Amino acid sequence: MSRRTRAAGAAPEQPAPEAGGTADPANVALFDQLAAEWWDQSGPNRLLHAMNPARMAFVREAAIAHLGCDPRARRPLAGLAALDVGCGGGIATEALARMGAATTGLDAAHGAIAAARDHAAAAGLAIRYLAGEVTELAAREPGAFDLVTAFEVVEHVADVHAFLAALRTLLRPGGLLVFSTPNRTLASLAIVKLAAEYVTGDIPKGAHDWRRFLKPEEMRERLAAAGFRVERLEGLGWSPASGFRVGGRTDLDYIGAAVAV
After folding, report:
1. What residue ranges do the domains of the chain occupy?
2. pTM of this prediction?
């Protein structure tokens, strides 16, 4: 068995967490550099734009199933307090607000938050944007949210345990976490890391450390340890015919819903 095959099957040693929080300073600096291009749908964040309709459809379904939202409502998240963690320039955050939630966006990258505020103001959306650490917000506002989203974030944090624990603290009991993240497989190493970053340029170069990707069973274990019960986990894949969609293979990326217990 090759060294690469063993790495794909077993959890590799994780990079040491940075002191003072869950954010990785190198990642924060990278996404700050991209702040001005966040809303360019053909720019370095184009995959996030392409993924967003499928992710938000999943959020809507999960909120209807677990939070009692009205499936017939035009704004099904009305009456809910939602937090988008690792919100960047606000792609998913604005979608949450348009679905009716009282929405907060949080990111450690100050430049991205500035871009998010400008875009929301231009769109006439009342979104509270905060720049800072998720652990700090959890200390200030425990149990403040009905719904937390964390899309393509957990693979970027330096301390997964502290990050997930903070998300649990931010949610009320029975609240809902919706997350997506890449799987750690040879396929994701080849496509998500090497091809997308260094060949096609669909993802900013240096955005990912493949060793930080979590397999679905590892994510389930981490979530259970943090006080969550995973209710649904699906593949998040792409095809030329349909674009990004929920369902099918999980070897590249997956999306899930977990309830705070």
Report:
1. 22-260
2. 0.85
Residue 243: its pLDDT value, please?
Answer: 84
Pairing between strand 253-260 and 243-246? unpaired
CA angle 162, 96, 24 (to 5 degrees): 30
pLDDT per residue over 55-91, tens digit each?
999 999 999 999 999 999 999 999 999 999 999 999 9
Determine contact, residues 96/82, Cβ cutoff 8 Å.
yes
Q: Which CATH superfamily is domain 22-260 in?
A: Vaccinia Virus protein VP39 (3.40.50.150)
Got the DSSP string for the chain? --HHHHHHHSPPPPPPPPTTSS--HHHHHHHHHTGGGTT-TTSTTHHHHHHHHHHHHHHHHHHHHHH---TT-SSTTTT-EEEEET-TTTHHHHHHHHTT-EEEEEES-HHHHHHHHHHHHHHT---EEEES-HHHHHHHSTT-EEEEEEET-GGG-S-HHHHHHHHHHHEEEEEEEEEEEE--SHHHIIIIIIIHHHTS-SS-TT---GGG---HHHHHHHHHHHTEEEEEEEEEEEETTTEEEESS--SSEEEEEEEE-
Q: How confident is the model over 124-142, as pLDDT tens digits?
A: 999 999 999 999 999 999 9
